[in-house]
Specification:
Shape: elongated
Radius of gyration: 19 Å
Distance between the termini: 34 Å
Structural class: mainly alpha
Order of helices and strands: HHHEEHHH
Number of helices: 6
Helix content: 40-55%
Number of strands: 2
Largest sheet: 2 strands, antiparallel
Length: about 150
């Protein structure tokens, strides 16, 4: 399993919206500047986030994007699955049911099932708000630089 640029950027966009968009709609150009992602690529990233029900889009002078649900209710696992599809480490675990004809005699299947469960559990237990708070903690003032940002 390898998370693509689209998945990584999708998560960054969601963190950006959670950080800056609580009280207003955030235009793509602002996200583009902060995240160093082209507007054209951001448009591609926003499509699955809109369809997935994670963001709202607003048109007009004060238009932009805003989270549809609070950052405390959105998991990293949801975002990554929306952007990437299945996170299963092997193809036989991608669907609802393992339809592999060798599943009953496969000696490696328990390894992949456990890895799949670990990945799902890990990503589903990180909420977007955790990442927003981590970002704020990093940007707090630093005692080593006389109160300036580290």
């Amino acid at each position: 399993m390898k998370i693509s640029t689209k998945g990584r950027y999708g998560l960054r966009v969601m963190i950006d919206l959670a950080t800056y968009g609580e009280s207003r709609h955030i235009p793509l150009r602002e996200i583009s500047q902060r995240q160093n992602i082209t507007i054209k690529y951001l448009e591609q990233i926003m499509t699955p986030l809109l369809k997935g029900g994670y963001v709202n889009s607003f048109r007009g002078n004060n238009g932009g994007y805003q989270l549809k649900r609070p950052a405390t209710e959105i998991t990293v696992g949801e975002i990554i699955r929306t952007m990437e599809g299945s996170l299963a480490p092997v193809a036989c675990l991608e669907g609802e049911e393992n339809v592999c004809p060798n599943k009953h005699k496969c000696q490696t299947l328990p390894v992949w099932e456990k890895l799949d469960a670990l990945i799902e559990d890990y990503l589903n237990n990180i909420i977007l708000q955790d990442l927003v708070q981590d970002r704020r903690d990093v940007h707090e003032t630093c005692p080593l630089t006389n109160g300036r940002r580290c």
